[in-house]
Amino acid sequence: MIRPIPLLASLIVSGTVISNVTGYCRPTSDSSFGAGVEAYQTGRFSDAAKCFRDSVSQRPSAGAFVNLGMTEWRRGRTGAAILAWEQALWVDALNETARNNLQFARESTGLDTPRLEWYETASTWLPTNSWAWIAGGGLWLALGMVTLPVVLRWRKAGWHQALAALGLGIFLLSLPAHLGVKTRARIGFVLERKTPLRLTPTEDADDIATLTAGEPARQLRVQGDYAFVSTRSGSGWIERDKLGLVCPP
Question: pTM value?
Answer without folding.
Answer: 0.82
